[in-house]
Amino acid sequence: MAEPGNEERAKEPRTVPTISDVARHAGVSPMTVSRVLSGGQHVSATMRRKVETSVRALGYRRNENARSLRPGHRSGLVGVVVTNLANPYYAEVLEGIGEILSEANRRVVFGTSHEDPEEEARLIADFVGRQTEGLIVVPAGGPSEHLRPEQRHGVPLVFASRRQDGVDVDAVIVDDVRGAERVTALLLEEGHRRIAFVGNAVSVFTGQRRYEGFERAHAAAGVPVLPELVRRGQQDIHSAETAARELLALDEPPTAIFGANNRNMVGAIKALHAASAARGTDLFARVRLASFDTFDLEELVPGDLSVVTHDARELGRTAAELLLVRLQGKRPDRPTRTIELPTSIRTRRRSEERLPGTEPAQEPAQAASP
Amino acid sequence: MAEPGNEERAKEPRTVPTISDVARHAGVSPMTVSRVLSGGQHVSATMRRKVETSVRALGYRRNENARSLRPGHRSGLVGVVVTNLANPYYAEVLEGIGEILSEANRRVVFGTSHEDPEEEARLIADFVGRQTEGLIVVPAGGPSEHLRPEQRHGVPLVFASRRQDGVDVDAVIVDDVRGAERVTALLLEEGHRRIAFVGNAVSVFTGQRRYEGFERAHAAAGVPVLPELVRRGQQDIHSAETAARELLALDEPPTAIFGANNRNMVGAIKALHAASAARGTDLFARVRLASFDTFDLEELVPGDLSVVTHDARELGRTAAELLLVRLQGKRPDRPTRTIELPTSIRTRRRSEERLPGTEPAQEPAQAASP
């Protein structure tokens, strides 16, 4: 099958096509080629297609890196750091970011911090060294020295999903506190007095805020939070499953579990399923569930489930838009701002299984607060 | 909250720290700094930490782009194109790629083709223009002109998950044919004669190969494939759900469904769940399921389910390793090769629900074929 050496042949020195070659091939002016290549607005679709075909036919490429070093030119790269790509939530965020940035002719250089601030610092230093024009970061929490403007050499930074104390940059976050508060209040109204909290590390912005909402709802209802039912620090499904298994083994187990993100909820569901099988009893009938964020196949959960939702892709889009405003430098003196996206809650009860095609009841989305 | 202008201050001209500054700050030689920064092997962990701390304290950055333009230096960027990041499978592949590349001091520039060959071509042209050293691509299928060595300017390319006819490069794929064949044979042995196939587009490498395995098992058993039960072309959960809903509405519905990837299986499960609710009957007891690839919460599926699994992260790692061999140019004349990763099958039956902690039976992994 292989014809060895194919790969190598292309490396031999040969004439590199220029913009003029492309223009001649496409039958347009070099200026038009240049305009298409720089993603200019005032080019017809037909023209663009012609030029793109010729670019491909001739194998023409701009030297983007060389361009970025000339004054007034930009690398076109945006560095994005998420904490955990195994969570489909971040895949959605990333899709939203990519959608807006590619419209603006930018590409994403990508890294995962795995919730480790040191890895985050390494990634950011690396991205800045690669002349990225901007950064979008889901901060892991913890030390934030590497996020200071001097450390970034002034490269604009936008936070997505989380914010970090002491770092004053644009951010898009979710209304975590109220989302968690409202869903906890719902469980309390149903009469639950032993509600477990399974969530990620105390140092994580969203973990902190969702716990705050959980506490607020308890305080408002005059019900104490029970420390033995609070498990914080699970960053993946596996550790969440372990935490939930321990909760279910308590002498007095919880009657409800709030999973403060989808990884924690999925882990808790796996633990409930396994414990049900082991004991030969249906624990889903006894433990009411509530989740912050959706997950695949949530309709298969054989018990009552409330889900706090928001639009992850929109969050990504908004983060990219905030960054582009800074990159275009239209209002360099604009104070930083935080956009908080609203959540909504949907509840599915086994007793009232719905027919397909009818949507589960949804509370009205809250207005975005500035 | 905001102290406006914070972002701007950092842009003022100031002295840029040099390697010597870092060396002085860390109390090591400039050579050591240089060695740490280039990811050299012969540096102790202590030394590395010292240098990294000083780099961060001073805000030193190498100009990676400038380096890449000097002869003999490399950009350190690898372009990665996947077809659909909403599928957690590709998130796993990407994690594997990132793991190996970051050890080798390379970063990933990332894009999603959304199964569109034209978008794939645009991404690759863009990456090549940005001086990426190498490319790892999950090809969307369809036209492949843009994948030819001349179009890539000889930038090494590795295929992951799929291969593309007529493009002779290194590839890591899964033993799709045998995986699909074995799981279909299992259903046929159980007596199923109306097995539906729900999978992605005919033009997609894996869709093609898994269908081939499905057909082979039928041929071996002397059972005809029923065209009305074959639905190819679903690339996401939503379209798969629609296809499965149609199958379940047939006068003579299938007694088993093979989902040729996890998006198709999840869609089919959603359709089964909805149809069960609508008809007030448990269709999971009547329709046997088999899936190529795992998905979250598969244990909640209330019916018999077989899953063909393989290690997606390992697939990503292997793709990155193949690319690094080419980048290091150790054996430039080595013929291209395709590594086929083995699959295994696990089956969970509702009638024999297992206790937690005991693993479901797993067939032995097949040996990798070259």
Write up what this structure looks like.
- Two copies of one chain form a homodimer.
- Chain A is built from twelve helices and twelve strands.
- In chain A, helix 3 packs across helix 4, helix 8 runs parallel beside helix 9 and helix 10 crosses helix 11.
- Chain A has two domains: 139 residues, Rossmann fold, CATH 3.40.50.2300; 134 residues, Response regulator (Rossmann fold).
- In chain A, the strands form two sheets. Chain A has a six-stranded parallel sheet, with helices on both faces. In chain A, strands 7-6-8-9-10-12 form a six-stranded mixed sheet, with helices on both faces.
- Chain A is an alpha/beta fold and 370 residues long.
- At the A-B interface, helix 1, helix 4, helix 5, helix 6 and strand 2 of A face helix 1, helix 4, helix 5, helix 6 and strand 2 of B.
- Strand 2 of chain A pairs antiparallel with strand 2 of chain B.
- Chains A, B: This is LacI family transcriptional regulator.
